[in-house]
Amino acid sequence: MAKHNEFGKIAEDMASVYLQKNGYKILTRNFRFQKAEIDIIAEKENLVIVVEVKARSTDTFILPQEAVTKAKIKSIVSAANHYLEEFNKDKEVRFDIISILPDEKKNLIIDHIADAFQAFDAN
Q1: Is the model's pTM score more than 0.85?
Q2: What tens digit of pLDDT does each residue of 36-53 get?
Q3: Where do the domains of the chain lie, and which CATH numbers do they carry?
């Protein structure tokens, strides 16, 4: 497995543990629909939370959350809609981003951005 893929897996694992420690119930990970993928789908307080995990080894060029483009949002929203229909979830949806970056001591730091974007941001 390529080094960046390993880092991405570590970041998704960290995000899942973080969410669980903060009262989220993980419903699924790496949900795929057509060419889209949702990293984590969770539930908390009667909401379905769709989480995009973005990790970078540095923020020199771009913050991880800045890598979530309109095209990426559109694909996440499409996959989320499919998930809700497929699993008959009739709940409000929130779209979050979890950003993971190393600090100056190389410790990985989680930044949870709740309600990071809306479905209409995809248009």
Answers
A1: yes
A2: 999 999 999 999 999 999
A3: 3-122 (3.40.1350.10)
